[in-house]
What we know:
Layout: E1 3-11, E2 14-23, E3 29-33, H1 40-48, E4 55-59, E5 64-65, E6 78-82, H2 93-97, H3 105-113, H4 129-142, E7 147-151, H5 159-176, E8 180-183, H6 187-193, E9 196-201, E10 204-209, H7 211-216, H8 221-226, E11 231-238, E12 243-246, E13 249-255, E14 262-267, E15 272-276, E16 282-289, E17 293-300, E18 305-311, E19 321-326, E20 332-336
The structure holds adenosine-5'-triphosphate.
GO molecular function, one term: ATP hydrolysis activity
Keywords: ATP-binding, Cell membrane, Ion transport, Iron, Iron transport, Membrane, Nucleotide-binding, Transport
Protein name: Iron(III) transport system ATP-binding protein
Amino acid sequence: MLKVNNLSVNYGDTDVVSNLNLELAKDEILMLVGPTGCGKTTILQALAGLIPISSGDINLGQWRATPEKQIPPEKRHVGMVFQDFALFPHLTVEQNVAFRLADKQPADHWITLLGLDAFRQVKPSTLSGGQKQRVALARTLAHKPAFILLDEPLSNLDAALKDSLRWEIRDALKTAGVPAIWVTHDQEEALSVGDRVGILKNGKLEQLDTPETCFCEPASRFVARFLGEASFLPGELNPSDNSVKTALGTAPGIPVNNATGSVDLLVRPDDVSLILDDTGNGEIDWVRYEGCARFYAVKLDDGTLVKIRASHENKAEPGDRVKLVITTTHPLAVFQRQ
Ligand SMILES: Nc1ncnc2c1ncn2[C@@H]1O[C@H](COP(=O)(O)OP(=O)(O)OP(=O)(O)O)[C@@H](O)[C@H]1O
């Protein structure tokens, strides 16, 4: 089991990663997300042994790396998958996957499982981006690593391919039964593919939990905003049943950090419905057409901006009066009013 205890990494006087703690279950996929420069790649590099750590330790059972005792990458049993595929251009697919393997059977197994049989004898330059990434994954898995690090493996691929390949990668990791840490910039990918999601801010974990908990019960406004569109609706919390009374109706709440009294209710675009109504409670500020939906920003009469996604049939223009109502029945996160 991979365990990281109080890991910190410095570049000069700057703490880039601070006191990171995490533990990966046997075949768990942990997605790491966070704004640019928050330390995601640095964490992967530290786990792989590519850069020294400043404090704490990384423990896999067979080895334990500390600032005093560095374990080189080749002794860590780590597999890495990068966004640029990192394949050998002069070798065929088969040779790439079986590179330095005494027993070629695992290479055959993963070539077949990842649908690469037809490409065994071709060079990487003739493959599409998605095929190259499958080869890179097959090579990594064929070497039977103890854990895998994926650094934005889909960022060089187009949207349609990303969507299918992310599931192929997840399935392959689960079939191999190997734990993985997967860095992504894509919130949807993090929420849908990960068993757990870690949200980083300035080198520190803001929250580490299941996708649903991070999305529905974010530990901070930062996490709430980072994982999707978030509007904060002023309201009053009723301590007897944790319901929150707002201008758009009363909703069940989950107080974060013991929020009480005057609070802000986190509403996502699908928690609210919109009705065209001259006597409504707000006015369309702007609208974006998304094909099957329209995404609206509505300025409420008290000045609060609420973002809402409605059916494309629901057509309103900036300046139109509308009525917003909270329609969701599940509890919404509640933050102390700032
Ligand atoms: N070799 C280095 N020397 C000094 N500072 C570095 C070095 N590598 C990275 N940094 C700094 O460390 C911080 C974290 O960088 P890192 O690449 O880990 O971020 P990231 O979250 O992966 O970013 P991105 O999402 O843009 O890839 C950044 O402020 C970066 O400028």
